[in-house]
Amino acid sequence: MSHKKSTNAPICKITTRFTLVALSSSTFFFCVHNVMGDWFRSYGKENWEFDSHGYMTSRIASIND
Question: Hey, where are the domains in the chain?
Fold first, then answer.
């Protein structure tokens, strides 16, 4: 049984708040399938923070498979 997953997965991301240093309350879900045709969905929320140069300094995510 192969667990290799596809790279052509649809993804949906909804951003509810954005500032110059933070992207917060981003809700997402995406679906992938393996070579056997079994589909899997992951979903969750995440918060990102960036420094003044645009580099990510913090990422907090809650992801459910």
Answer: 11-64
